[in-house]
Write a structure and sequence with these properties.
275 residues, alpha/beta, TIM Barrel, eight-stranded parallel sheet, two-stranded antiparallel sheet, globular
Length: 275
């Protein structure tokens, strides 16, 4: 299905639609800083009014933060991903805490657990995860969580170490039963869905979206990965996010502009930004 969203002036029933991309690896789409800024501008022209730039390492964060300074609609998360557990960097805790106080840095992330790729060992990953949850608590920031085949441990850690500002399970990949366990635990957790939501065989994601409270749902591009179905074969970009949001609206059986606005407002609340 093709969705009619190709410019920032798109409106339905007189309302301009706006989208919030809560997770994009801008630095992995293009190396060139000018191309990175163009990606962000093209997203804005497609109605994606805000983007959270994500990096896996602190080296990549420093470069990405500098490259994207002119893009005022782009915000940042800083953290050490599980992929970097064996080499987080010298004095990485101090680096994270210092960077988290920079303008437009709004979260700690992405952090979490990844047992699929077997980075380091389970214990070292959990220690890195907990250390950064504690930083988030000290700084009163939310966290962006990477979970790959580690759902049981992620939930157990969050039950004990949930930072007051909450967490988002980015590129959600578990099922509805897992989401119900998270909600039943009373945790301040949001659920973010990427382009794989639009895949026909992603029944676990469709069922999860259908059972979630509206105020816990976010959308993300996860660019350059997880391209929506209608763009399959292309490198994913934040400008394709509206395709995921439109698909979400169909699952929720609500107007596309309502789904866009709900997820936009949810993201602003989670990242403590004015709508």
């Amino acid at each position: 299905m093709q969705y009619p969203y190709g410019c920032p002036t798109i409106s339905i029933n007189g309302r301009q639609m706006r989208y919030f991309d809560t997770h994009a690896h801008i630095g992995l789409i293009y190396d060139d800083p000018i191309e990175q800024l163009l990606v962000c501008q093209q997203a804005k022209q497609s109605g994606v009014g805000r983007i959270i730039s994500i990096c896996n390492s602190l080296v990549d964060f420093r470069q990405g933060y500098e490259n994207l300074k002119p893009a005022e609609h782009v915000y940042h998360a800083v953290g050490v991903a599980p992929s970097e557990v064996q080499n987080p960097g010298k004095d990485w805790r101090t680096t994270v805490e210092t960077a988290a106080k920079l303008p437009r840095v709004v979260a700690i992330g992405e952090i979490g657990l990844d047992y699929f790729h077997k980075y380091g060992d389970r214990r070292s990953q959990i220690e890195l995860f907990i250390d950064q949850l504690e930083i988030a608590e000290r700084l009163d920031l939310p966290v962006i969580i990477h979970n790959r085949e580690a759902g049981k441990d992620v939930l157990e850690v969050l039950r004990d170490r949930m930072p007051p500002s909450g967490a988002v399970l980015h590129c959600y990949s578990e099922n509805a039963e897992y989401a119900d366990r998270v909600l039943s635990a009373g945790l301040n957790v949001y659920f973010s869905f990427a382009g794989n939501l639009t895949y026909r065989n992603a029944r676990n994601l469709h069922e999860t979206v259908a059972m979630l409270p509206y105020d816990r749902i976010l959308v993300e591009s996860e660019a350059p990965f997880m391209v929506p179905a209608e763009y399959r074969g292309k490198r994913n970009k934040p400008e394709y996010l509206p395709s995921t949001a439109w698909f979400l609206s169909e699952i929720l059986q609500m107007a596309p502009e309502e789904a866009a606005e709900i997820t936009y407002q949810n993201a602003c609340r989670f990242f403590k930004l004015e709508p």
